[in-house]
Amino acid sequence: MGKVWHVxxxxxxQTEFFLNxxxxxxxxxxxxxxxxxxxxxKIIVDDDDSKVxxxxxxxxxxxxxxxxxxxxxSGTADVFFQQILALTGWGYRxxxxxxYWDHLEFCDGFRKLLDHLQLDKVHLFxxxxxxFLAQKFAEYTHKSPRVQSLILCNAFSDTSIFNQxxxxxxxxxxxxxxxxxxxxxxxxxxxxxxxxADGIDFxxxxxxxxxxxxxxxxxxxxxxxxxxxxxxxxxxxxxxxxVFDQSALSTxxxxxxxxxxxxxxxxxxKTGGNFPYLCRSAEVxxxxxxxxxxxxxxxxxAIDPSMVSAEELEVQKISLxxxxxxxxxxxxxxxxxxxxxxxxxxxxxxxxxxxxxxRKDYTSEKDKCEAGRTEHYQEEPWDCLxxxxxxIPHETGSHFKHxxxxxxxxxxxxxxxxxxxxxxxxxxxxxxxxxx
Length: 436
Prior knowledge:
The protein has 436 residues and is of the alpha/beta class. The protein has helices at 14-20, 29-37, 81-88, 103-116, 129-140, 176-184, 194-208, 212-223, 251-260, 276-279, 281-293, 310-330, 335-340, 366-370, 422-435; strands at residues 40-43, 53-58, 67-70, 94-95, 122-127, 147-153, 238-243, 265-269, 341-344, 383-387, 411-414. The protein has two domains: 14-293, Rossmann fold (3-Layer(aba) Sandwich); 310-435, no CATH class. The strands form two sheets. An eight-stranded mixed sheet has the order 1-2-4-3-5-6-7-8, sandwiched between helices. A three-stranded antiparallel sheet has the order 9-10-11. The chain is globular and about 55 Å long. The chain starts with 13 loop residues before the first helix and ends with a helix. Residues 106-182 form the AB hydrolase-1 domain. Residues 355-374 are annotated as: Disordered. Keywords: Cytoplasm.
């Protein structure tokens, strides 16, 4: 059984109680390695010296279209340390905000940061508030695009879902302890598995490191009356990543995101709560790499070209050609049909080598994926499909649509998996076995 939290009614405040049960992430070897090897940079791009961007810049500096992470209200740049460590190991360049009081001000500051870093276009991964700001920045720069693609994790498109737009202008008056209490109110409590509990503990620690002005500005951005105008960013490739267990987002908010981006790819996780990038990092890293595959071999690749084999680049070129033809065909397809399934291009990214020094061959597992899951295989059967709950094959059990707790991070792998680590690959096959 996971950890059970009960906030005491005695002398300890809720924040103090959380800090007393600090989890293992902060003292883990991975986090300590990250802090000792990746320096924290502070950059000022505005006339106001109080607006300081704190970021981690890792990976090859030759990459001109890196992946940038934008944290949630309670997080700092290092909450994405597991993604930074994993992705930079494969040759990706990733960069993981200061006190801004409105969305336009944030977008202008972020544009100046990209100019300072000499980055023309970027891929954005935004979590919760970070996802909303990523969409607003893409909207802000739509006339002169600076965003190549979006990965939206537990993100929202309209701040009115929190029903706090009327208080947005008063956060700057509130003391820090009251602001922290507001944020902690959205954190899960009760029985949790150890990884999720450790993830929440770590986020509480990061929350404690934020000052009153930082927290007030983030809550203002989170609740200030605003919404995304999707017609301005409809041409940007989007992946929506969310969870089926408890999170701060309501089902209605998730459905609104699906309607806003009917052609977006969907990455569903069975569990993960508000912070899947911490407690389900293997799956999140896998989805990120799949999303970035479509840009391999182009000027917008977030990976060092030397890390991609000639064979993989050739496959990707064929995929891009096929994708373009498919896009033309999609214009004649009914909207409902387009909404039901998301298709990833043919892929072949690199994988951890086996103990013998070579790559593992998983093509013998093809039969496990074939029965009842796809209508047909192409000549090169390495397409990766993600099914949504509306399009789950009957053979996997109709109960999937009615029991949310049974839903899996559902991936159809008629894909040659050469991207993930052995641990991630093992998880993928476990998911497939569960669906059999």
